[in-house]
Amino acid sequence: MGFVRLGLLIFITALLPASVFADKNMSTEVDTRLIHSRQAVKMFADALMAELKFALGEGGPGRAIKVCNIEAPQIAKDVSDAHRWQVGRTSLRYRNPDNVPDAWEEVVLRQFEQRLAQGEDIKKMEYAEETDAGYRYMKAIPTKPLCLTCHGDNLGEEVQATLNELYPDDNATGFKVGQIRGAFSIIQPSRSLLRRLLYQVQVRFFLLPG
């Protein structure tokens, strides 16, 4: 193999996390991924709450729903792009059809409901697992008094009209304080994927003419 290609291969390999090559580092890596997932969720939640509070103050609940319709997906995209992950929200009783839970998310959401029934604090409720799709993390979203304005039982006329306009198949009303509203959901690239990428790079370099 030529010196140029050998140098490039060493350079690319050096860019990959050390944990890709050493299983003994898995515990540390998972801890780091968990911490970073929590940070990303906080970033998402804080930005969304700021937008909603501003909208409520400026134009009331109807405006807040419209802002959530537009801004929430954009905030999720911004956080996703910043980390190069998939970051979003989901719920068993979703409002936006883009937030329908996949099979893994649905299982975790139902586990959250069981954990709540057993007395666990929603604010501390989370779950993480390495899967074929990558490292996955979910953090439960509690229903707070402010949420009831758009997600409770007694909705104002403006709220109901806006929901009918934007979400004709809405499933996200009738909540009570203390229930699980949904969850933040994150997918990070898996270690096995990084290993496969490295292997492909190595094969391509070795197969190139010298």
Rounded to an integer in angstroms, the radius of gyration calculated over CA atoms is 21 Å
Distance between the termini: 5 Å
| Total domain modules | 1
Mean pLDDT: 84
* Total helical elements: 6
Order of helices and strands: HHEHEEHHEH
Unreliable spans: 3-24
Sheet with most strands: 4 strands, antiparallel
Number of strands: 4
- The helicity comes to 55-70%
Report the portion of residues in β strands: 5-15%
Query: What structural category characterises the helix and strand content?
Result: alpha+beta
Strand arrangement across the biggest beta sheet: 1-4-3-2
Detailed description of the structure:
The chain is α+β, with helices and mostly antiparallel strands. It has one domain. It contains six helices and four strands; from the N terminus they run ααβαββααβα. A four-stranded antiparallel sheet has the order 1-4-3-2. A hairpin with a 2-residue loop joins strand 2 and strand 3. The radius of gyration is 21 Å and the shape is globular. The N terminus is likely disordered.
